[in-house]
Every structure is written in C-alpha cells, then in structure tokens.
Amino acid sequence: MNTVDGYHKSSYSGESGHCVEVAEGPRTRVRDTRNRTLGHLEFEASEWAVLLSALTR
C-alpha cells in the first residue's frame, strides 16, 4: 500500500501499526509508522540494496 508521500509498509507488517515505512528511490527513506513526525533515516539506493541483501541471507 502506498501513502501520499511515497512510503509503503511491508506486507509482513499486518495491521498492528508497529512497523517501519519505506520510500524507495535514488535515496531510500525509512521512518517509524507510529512516529512519522519525528523524521526519517535516509540511505543511498546502493546502501539500501546491500542492507536488504544481507537481511535476506
């Protein structure tokens, strides 16, 4: 599901609301779903790809 500002939640998150949202692009942004107003972390797309690859191993 996409939100207005390009963020989406993982399909693994369910409806609990305890998750992160990601907006992928040249710079990937990650934020806490429950605390959106506190800002986000930002990564280069290549850094994000390396992280996801490491997590899926």
Structure description:
The chain has a four-stranded antiparallel sheet. The model has no long low-confidence stretch (mean pLDDT 85). Helices cover 19% and strands 28% of the residues. Strand 2 (20-23) and strand 3 form a beta hairpin. The protein has one domain (8-55). It is of the alpha+beta class. The protein is globular.
Give the helix/strand layout:
Blueprint: E1 8-9, E2 20-23, E3 27-32, E4 41-44, H1 45-55
Antiparallel strand pairs: 1-2, 2-3, 3-4
Q: Any descriptors?
A:
single chain; 57 residues; alpha+beta; four-stranded antiparallel beta sheet; 4 strands; 19% helix; 28% strand
Question: TL;DR of this structure?
Answer:
It comes from Nocardiopsis flavescens. The chain has 57 residues and is an alpha+beta fold.
Task: Report the order of strands and helices.
Answer: EEEEH
The fraction of residues assigned to DSSP E strands is 25-35%
Number of domains: 1
- Backbone structural class: alpha+beta
Amino-to-carboxy terminus distance: 25 Å
Rg from C-alpha positions? 11 Å
Oligomer: single chain
Helix content: 10-25%
Overall pLDDT score:
85
Tally of DSSP β-strands: 4
Poorly predicted spans:
none
The number of helical runs is 1
Largest beta-sheet details: 4 strands, antiparallel
Strand order in space, largest sheet: 1-2-3-4
Shape: globular
InterPro entries: DUF397
Protein name: DUF397 domain-containing protein
Organism: Nocardiopsis flavescens
Pfam families: DUF397 (PF04149)
